[in-house]
Amino acid sequence: MSGKVKIFSRVGKTRIIPIGLKMLLIFIILILLSNFITNFISLQLTQRQIIDLNNTIMVSQLKELYTTSSNQFQIYSYSGNRDESIDTMCKVARTGFANPNSLALGVTDDGGIEFLADANELAVIPQFDAAALKLINDNRQNGVEEGSISFASPYGDYFGVYKYQKDWGYYIIRAELRSDLKEANYRIYGIISALIIIFTFLFVAAGYITIRREFRPLRSFTDDLIEMQKKKQLALIDISKAPNDDVTYMAASFNSLSMQVNNLLDTFQKFVSKDIVAKAYAGRDVGLEGKQRDLAMLFSDVKSFTYRTETLGNDIIEVLNVHYNRVIHNVHENSGIVGSIIGDAILAIYGTMESKRSKAYNAVISAWNITRATAELRQEMQARREEIEKTRKLTESEERVFQAVMVDVGVGIDGGKVFYGTIGRNDFEDPRQSHMTNTVIGDTVNSASRLEGLTRIYHIPVVVSESIKDEVSAETARYKFIEIDTVQVKGKTKGKKIYFPFDTNEMDQGLLEQYAKFEEGLKAYYDGDWKTARKIFKGLELDVTQVFLERMGTKGAPADWSGIWAMTTK
């Protein structure tokens, strides 16, 4: 098993993003935004405080510098050494510098630079900022000789404090470069941001582990739903290990709904043909529609049904259910669908479902399986009778019941073009008023029913048409089709050959030889040589020959004999 952690699931090409991951990402983004914005606002507010604090510090330094300049003026007055006094003032100013571009300078009222002290001793300011000079000159004329100042320089914008020194006749200015404070702020901001990111990821890792653990049931729910979608089948979500929370309640509600829908679907599938169910599961609309298709029809009917009904009464339903349980299984197992069930008769349709075999081949296989299933049912009833008769004989009423439950069927199969689709009423405004049924309409349906009726006349279990014979013979050699007769059923004007599909997988060589002789007799029968035909048929132990012997009697063929026998009943 792979050790990789699976984060995303897929349905087709669509990636399913876990809700826990979404919540975690949103949480991360909000936390980071909150921290960065709070940090930025804090720094902006702090910067103002830092500027105010710097101004306070610079005022203190300015006072010290002002006092020094006054003292140095007295010394200069006695010594006459101006450069020494200025150099002393510069040294005093540098003692209070804290930033790379701290500055102290003396500026005359015409903008001249009397002295300049900077932290790196490299600054050169040839001319003071004219706008700032005008402002402080105007203030002095108005009686204000000290205050705050901002001025431009070749190195950037400065802010600071100034005071006019009357002895020297210039303004003493103590200032700091704004960018120095901004760089410090940005450096602090970067450090704080890095710490925020580090701690955020630490908490995210802890949060991811916690959320993954807490949302593990939800991930399990999602996997169950994805599996249902792949299978196109509702199932129950496993909530056995889920916590008692609102998400589990949603899953439990889904399970309740799923059971109700499955009950409806089970009922739906029991009453609707498989191809309609498949169409509905595929998400396609089921409406009033239909088209002509080439299909195979299988019609099966319970023989002597009236007698069985009269004998068994309501118990006939139980017998039919046992019978249809096996019949419908065989139809579905061979890619057929149930078109309709009318009492003792069932119509199965082949060619609507995908299959590796042809529709005719599937129909013939089903016919024989149905015949075998009813034969097995009769054997079970016979075994039950023998068990009872070990202790006593059946009463007269029990004998009648026994004969009634010995179910036997005939099967007729034909193929061809039919209308296949959905008919009825489709009410879009009120679906409760709708009623639709899947149906098949065409002469092939009627023909399959009439072929089934011929099984009683010819005493064979399965009768198929020539079209079924041709289609199956082109696909497999499993079945040897024995021609039985050419008949003109009631309501038709043309004769139609009918065949008995002999399954060579269960070959009885003696029976096969009997049918070979039967075909010789049938040829003589077609040719009008009824004498030869009678002779051959009398020598056979096949029930099918009885109908020909009764039909021919001791007579010869009619003068207008065409080999076609016209049926007088359906």
Kindly summarize this structure in a few lines.
The protein has 570 residues and is α+β, with helices and mostly antiparallel strands. The chain is 53% helix and 21% strand.
Describe this protein's structure.
This protein is of the alpha+beta class and 570 residues long. It is 53% helix and 21% strand. It is built from 16 helices and 16 strands. The strands form 3 sheets. Strands 8, 9, 10, 11, 12, 13, 14, 15 and 16 form a 9-stranded mixed β-sheet that branches. A 5-stranded antiparallel β-sheet has the order 4-3-7-6-5, with helices on both faces. A two-stranded antiparallel ribbon has the order 1-2. Helix 1 packs antiparallel against helix 2 (82-94). The longest helix is centred in the first third of the chain and has 61 residues, at 19-79. It is rod-shaped. The model has no long low-confidence stretch (mean pLDDT 82).
Distance between the termini: 67 Å
Counted beta strands: 16
Structural class: alpha+beta
Number of helices: 16
What does the average pLDDT come to?
A: 82
- Kindly state the percentage of residues in helix: 40-55%
Task: Using the alpha-carbon principal axes, give the shape.
Answer: rod-shaped
The main pleated sheet reads as: 9 strands, mixed
Give the low-confidence spans: none
**Rounded Rg:** 53 Å
Strand fraction band? Answer: 15-25%
